[in-house]
From TrEMBL:
Superkingdom in the source lineage: Eukaryota
Protein name: DUF6314 domain-containing protein
InterPro entries: DUF6314, FAD/NAD-bd_sf, Flavin_mOase-like, FMO-like
One MF annotation (Gene Ontology) recorded for this entry: NADP binding
Residue ranges of domain DUF6314 in the record: 641-831
């Protein structure tokens, strides 16, 4: 059985994908000091190409070179009634916490070592004296709370009518993990403020000596011996930057996306001529250029054209919204809307594809149907043609990136970052597919690397030289590529050369929360002897790579290995090793779609609890009610307004002397950083002005304000031609997601300063029938409003028609009555 699902892949190197810090399923922590020098040379001897320094060239090990002794002779001793076996868990992030819970339930005595003063890993407040990759406090997850959770801990509460919060903030996730620890892990099992400084194997015993310093690393050295070792130091602990040795030639600003701050890279106050390059095509690789483009759009028009934003990527990324419109069988033009993960993570039973290429074609076909495009409208660099349809999909999650490409604010470069020339220019090498070529990018003043992370430095700082040698890495190798580790780990959990008393949790490229929970369950079962170890030959076959697996007829294994697995594939494979069916509860759900969530897992070591039941019930409410909720519809519609539209307006007046006729022109919804905050004064109807946020999010924010400008020509019924312009401000209320429309001050030049409130686009109001076919047509989402402007009443009405996930066209109608006015104007908007 092939479980079809699509998951966000990592950044930059599509041969060995490197995940990005914006993937919400960051699951590990790091109990050591992160290197303060993220730009260092990668040099790993024969594992790197001598012709292309820094380029990773990994080949499967032939049978004759694979040692068999350590794994085949190592044993995992079961816990005895007299003494619980001890386990050192390095890292107190989601991976370490989940693993410790499973170990406790399996009868072990785990001890979590966490360098910070709090558990939670990346999701905890920055601790003084502990330098680690740290998520900004204003960052939000890019998937729903269901994906950022474990199977039996759900403290979230549903809002009115079952509406579920679509995204969580960093602090909310940190609070979730702290609550998980308090419920399931005793305090004596957690040592916060203890930084691990060394790990070595006890001779002839298969036990592990762990050295640490308390006080966040400033205390005295201590050591303790444990029966087992779990490494949960994190995938995202250290930035990975290719060709670090050449970056000294680049004289401009260079930084990894984990340190990105838009105000530093492109300030709005002082901005001269700029040429900024973003390297990396997935997740943060899409969010960073989108954020820079929004900053460019917010500059004064006089300086805007002096800023150029280039985006270099090795494979066309699918640009997907975090809040995804999807098929509404009752009305295909009025899609339902849910977080992307609730659509993608639907388990479907399908025939196993004949090989990886067929599997990837299936995934791309599903994406094309879902989005209604192959992205050819964005340009040849983004087109998912026959060649790219045989590669694993690259994913960028942002509502605005594609619109900025259409506006010309992001300029794509298809190719691979190949280093820096002697005179400081950027080298780009061609990639396969026929749409790129070698080139040199000159006059670049800033490079932002969205090239992912590597788990190696954290391991190098604590593992003994003997352990590193078994893994093929020298202690002094700086910032090795992550692809040197991931193929060595069987099912991303254990290393053949290190034996059966050590396991890795959440260190794979895509450490989904429920995935690491299953890893922890499996590893606890292996250590306890209640779950059989994989056959030695199976492990060896996997190490030889997907082509070898295909030659043996192991199509399922080859498909899983070649892309290091998708979300549901990983869960299904790990669950098979545990002897459970993770999708039984998913299939039994009465609602559609039927997304898998962690609460669907059978319990491990405990009886089902009320938290799992609460999560399942909230999912039902989300699918049945929230997918039709006005706030979700408003978010999807507002995001799709961005950019240029052709408009045709029909004007019908009942008063003599007032012109009627047809207006043809162009409208632009120009995005900009919010210049104010709309505040609700009465439920959904009246809003007032408030200052904009003092510190907007550094990354991952949605567009929340447009300056609407239209211009064109009115041809009256008498043949008279009149030129006309109009401006409004469209804003999305951060509190309610309502779309609000505001008048613009007439004396503020071209900057479009907001004046006062006009109306709110209310998706709960009925549209009045006036005999106009646009707004009153069949299908699509409809909305209405009313507004008294001095002595004149305005009754706006809207109809939005989608094609798949994209807004295809929409209508706005105004009915106006007053002492000197009595007319109806209906406007149709279509993309050029």
């Amino acid at each position: 059985m092939f479980i079809r699902a699509i998951r966000p892949s990592g950044c930059y190197n599509r041969q060995r994908s490197f995940p990005c810090n914006r993937l919400c399923t960051l699951t590990s922590s790091f109990s050591r000091r992160t290197s303060p020098h993220p730009f260092r040379t990668s040099s790993v001897g024969d594992t790197l190409s001598s012709r292309h320094p820094g380029k990773l060239c990994i080949k499967p090990l032939p049978p004759s070179t694979v040692p068999r002794t350590n794994f085949s002779t190592a044993t995992a001793t079961m816990a005895t009634p007299n003494r619980k076996k001890t386990v050192a868990v390095i890292g107190g992030g989601p991976s370490g916490l989940s693993a410790a819970k499973s170990l406790l339930e399996a009868g072990f005595a785990p001890t979590i070592f966490e360098a910070r003063s709090h558990v939670g890993g990346l999701w905890t407040p920055l601790c003084s004296g502990v330098e680690t990759t740290q998520l900004p406090a204003d960052l939000k997850t890019n998937v729903s709370p269901f994906t950022c959770s474990f199977s039996d801990w759900w403290p979230h509460e549903a809002a009115a009518e079952g509406r579920v919060k679509m995204q969580l903030g960093v602090r909310e996730v940190g609070d979730y993990l702290q609550g998980f620890r308090e419920r399931y892990i005793p305090e004596e099992a957690v040592r916060c403020g203890c930084r691990v400084v060394s790990v070595s194997e006890e001779e002839q015993q298969g036990r592990w000596k762990v050295g640490w310093k308390d006080g966040g690393g400033g205390g005295e050295n201590k050591e303790e011996v444990f029966d087992f070792l779990v490494v949960a130091t994190g995938t995202f602990s250290d930035p990975f930057v290719p060709f670090v040795e050449e970056l000294g030639r680049f004289e401009g600003l260079k930084l990894h996306c984990s340190k990105y701050d838009g105000e530093e890279v492109l300030p709005l106050t002082e901005c001269g001529k700029r040429r900024i390059l973003v390297v990396g095509g997935c997740l943060s690789g899409a969010e960073v250029p989108a954020d820079l483009a929004l900053r460019k759009a917010s500059l004064k028009e006089s300086v805007r054209e002096g800023v150029e934003i280039l985006h270099l990527f090795t494979q066309p990324p699918w640009i997907l919204p975090k809040l995804l419109p999807f098929q509404n069988e009752a009305d295909p033009m009025a899609p339902r809307v849910l977080p992307l993960d609730q659509i993608f993570y639907t388990a479907r039973e399908m025939p196993e594809p004949a090989g990886p290429e067929e599997k990837f074609r299936t995934l791309h076909t599903g994406l094309k149907a879902m989005m209604g495009t192959d992205q050819a409208d964005l340009g040849p660099e983004y087109t998912i043609d026959d060649y790219w349809s045989t590669k694993y999909p690259a994913i960028g999650m942002t509502e605005s990136y594609d619109k900025f490409v259409r506006m010309g604010y992001i300029k794509p470069v298809l190719g691979r970052f190949a280093g820096i020339t002697e005179d400081g220019a950027v080298k780009v090498s061609a990639v396969a597919g026929g749409k790129s070529e070698d080139c040199i990018l000159t006059d670049i003043d800033t490079i932002v690397f969205a090239t992912g992370y590597t788990p190696w430095p954290s391991l190098q700082r604590i593992f003994s030289p003997q352990m590193l040698a078994k893994m093929g890495i020298e202690p002094g190798t700086h910032n090795p590529a992550p692809g040197l580790l991931h193929p060595q780990l069987h099912k991303q959990v254990f290393h053949y050369e290190l034996g059966k008393t050590i396991g890795f949790i959440g260190i794979q490229p895509r450490p989904f929360w429920v995935g690491v929970e299953l890893q922890g369950r499996w590893l606890a079962g292996l250590f306890a002897g209640t779950v059989p170890w994989p056959d030695e030959q199976e492990v060896l076959d996997h190490r030889k790579g997907p082509e070898h697996l295909l030659s043996l007829g192991k199509v399922y294994d080859a498909n899983l290995v070649v892309a290091q697995g998708g979300y549901l594939e990983i869960l299904g494979d790990m669950s098979k090793a545990l002897g459970i069916d993770p999708f039984k509860a998913t299939r039994a759900a009465a609602h559609t779609p039927k997304p898998f969530i962690p609460a669907h897992l059978p319990p491990f070591g405990t009886a089902p609890n009320e938290y799992a039941a609460a999560a399942v019930n909230m999912l039902r409410l989300s699918v049945e009610k929230a997918s039709y909720a006005p706030e979700n519809i408003a978010k999807a519609v507002f995001a799709e307004l961005q950019g240029t539209w052709n408009l045709t307006r029909t004007l019908v007046s009942k008063l003599p002397g007032f012109p009627d006729g047809t207006f043809h022109g162009t409208a632009v919804f120009h995005p900009r950083i919010p210049t104010f905050t709309p505040l609700v004064e009465s439920p959904g109807r009246l809003f007032s002005l408030s200052p904009p946020p003092e510190k907007p999010p550094r990354l991952g924010r949605d567009v929340q304000e447009y300056l609407y400008t239209e211009s064109g020509e009115l041809t009256t019924s008498t043949g008279l031609k009149l030129q006309g312009t109009r401006r409004y401000v469209y804003s999305q209320c951060p509190e309610t997601s309502a779309i609000t429309v505001w008048f613009v001050k007439a004396d503020f030049g071209s900057e479009g300063k907001v004046d006062y409130f006009f109306h709110c686009v209310d998706f709960t109001r009925e549209v009045e029938n006036l005999g106009f076919p646009g707004v009153e047509g069949e299908g699509g989402w409809k909305a209405a409003a009313e507004h008294l402007c001095d002595k004149d009443w305005y009754w706006p009405a809207y109809r939005f028609v989608f094609k798949a996930a994209r807004l295809e066209r929409f209508w706005i109608r105004y009915k106006v009555k007053g002492p000197q006015k009595d007319y109806v104007a209906e406007t149709e908007y279509v993309r050029p």
